[in-house]
Amino acid sequence: MVLNRKIFAAGLAVLASAGIVGCATVNSATGGAFAGRGDSVAAALQESGRPPDDRALDGARNPLETIAFSKVKSGDRVALIEPKGDLYYARIFSKIVGPTGHVYIVVPASGYPAQYRAQEAAALKAGKPVPPNAIDAANEIINVTDYKNVTVIGEMLFLLNGEFGLPEQVDVVWSNGSYNDWHGKTAGQGGKPLPLAGIDKAILNAMTPGGMLYVADKSGGQGFDEAMHSGNAEAVKTELQGAGFTYDAASSALSGQYILRFKKPSSLTGDKRPRGSDPLAPYYGNTVHGGIGMAVQRWDMYHPDHTYQEYGNTGSRAQQAIWYWDAEGNNCHIHEYPAFERSFTDCHEVAPGKKAGDEWTEGEGNAARHYKLDAGYTFPPEGGGSLPGAPPVP
Fold first, then answer.
1. How many CA atoms lie less than 13 Å away from 331 in the CB half-sphere?
2. What CA–CA distance (Å, rounded) separates 346 from 327?
3. What are phi and psi of 224, to 5 degrees?
4. For position 315, what pLDDT does the model report?
5. From CA 16, how far away is CA 122, in angstroms rounded?
6. How many whole angstroms separate alpha carbon 107 and alpha carbon 63?
């Protein structure tokens, strides 16, 4: 049994072809300070569909100068790092890159969706405010006709010793107001530091040769001050040049902030996506049965149209997603169902060269899991908590 393959095919088309977006409509009556500017940034800022709340932020954020500094242009692929799920820049970039470009909103996730929902449920039970969920905030742009060229990716960047898994290499990466906080002592998994060197390298690999990295944040101090959420431009340069970037330029468009532009050397590719034969071909029509002999087991199904379903035994749930390869050669899933996992993205290594009937073990010690590639489609036993039609169990 396969769940709604047509929906997944439509979702894949969004990822692969960047969607269809109508041309920006310039309203000269509301153009304000941007009227008369003929460049693409000014045209996007004058677009009549921009929310009033976005327009109210233009004075403080100076998008005309800062976005132009990133060198984004029509047809570009852009990744926006948005830790709060802010859509201000996504709406602008969507119009600049147009129907032949694409915008990926990357929301760094601190844990799995079930952990977010557990925190929300605990807050409601205690009569306290529900903690904000940045992935949910970013998801508000999904399926909005004017922004069909936007995809949300909620990703735990601290996994795999640092990841930045995108469906394709991008021309511009935009980091505004997040880089300093990545240096916090408890910014990573389990209250540990982030594997920042690995994340920086993953960002580099996720970019096209010659691509631009825009980094802006609060300026101050000699290094990075966790309490003040500030950082020093020279410290940023040292780190990113150490990751392989070339420093390109600085801007003074915003008071109290460093604004730096870096370039990926044109000689670097860094794209490890599979080429030639498909490593997942033996998986199609079969089932990866994971966690054999353990309390929690999973039944995973990959399809050549880049759709994916996963079922679990009692206490787990059904999932469906769109899968792709990232620049690190990892296999990633953008979750579509259940609704509370929508846009959550996880990347992991895939064991190649398997055939139906093969068994193998991944991980070591307590983390070891036993797998088998079942022939055909197999499912959890009757009564499993995530059989088709059963309600999702958080």
1. 15
2. 14
3. -125, 125
4. 58
5. 39
6. 21
What's the Cα-to-Cα distance from 349 to each of 69, 129, 207, rounded to whole Å?
Answer: 36, 38, 20
Residue bearing tokens 């499993």: 384
> Closest Cα to residue 201, out of 272, 150, 134?
272
pTM of the model: 0.88
User: pLDDT, tens digit, for every residue of 29-73?
Assistant: 334 555 555 589 999 999 998 999 999 999 999 999 999 999 999
Minimal CA–CA distance to 301: which of 326, 316, 319? 319
Supply 354's token pair: 């398997």
Q: Where are the alpha helices (DSSP H) in the chain?
A: 5-17, 40-45, 52-56, 58-61, 63-69, 88-97, 113-125, 134-138, 196-205, 233-243
**Cis amide linkage into residue 338, ω under 30° from 0:** yes
Backbone angles phi, psi at 14, to 5 degrees: -65, -45
User: Hunting for tokens 């060269």 — which residue is that?
Assistant: 353
Q: Over range 321-334, report the average pLDDT.
A: 96
> What's the pLDDT tens digit per position in 62-84?
999 999 999 999 999 999 999 99
Cα distance between residue 332 and residue 348, in whole Å:
6
Eight-state DSSP code of residue 79: E
CB-CB neighbours of 237 under 10 Å: 17
Torsion of CA 374, 377, 383, 388, to 10 degrees: 150
Can you tell me the distance from the alpha carbon of 308 to that of 301, in angstroms, rounded to the nearest whole number?
6
Mean pLDDT of 179-194: 92
For tokens 């059963």, name the residue.
390
